[in-house]
Amino acid sequence: xxxxxxxxxxxxxxxxxxxxxxxxxxxxxxxxxxxxxxxxxxxxxxxxxxxxxxxxxxxxxxxxxxxxxxxxxxxxxxxxxxxxxxxxxxxxxxxxxxxxxxxxxxxxxxxxxxxxxxxxxxxxxxxxxxxxxxxxx
Length: 137
Fold this sequence. Notes:
By secondary structure, the chain is mainly alpha-helical. About 55% of the residues lie in helices and about 5% in strands.
């Protein structure tokens, strides 16, 4: 499976955890939800490492992908300082980045397996306004 798709699945789960103020979003909780989502996608459970989660949080906080997420760490828990923030609320500038990710995933589509691939491509297609061709040259 593509490392990019793995990262997108983890980012989605981490974002969901950080937005939910009723859940104690600890490193271990994020490891658990990410591992379960990836297991559902792959069919094999393997615990995501603490280092991977910490790296994902670092990337989400940075300008690297344009998120600059307002992630706060307090009392061993993470959360967004802005309760309405989500990395998936995309500005026009970020749509270009998503469009590039979408086109790259389309090129790699034959190598990707699992039930979420089609749903992810559909969602990216909706956000970017790009169509999903039936055949990739």
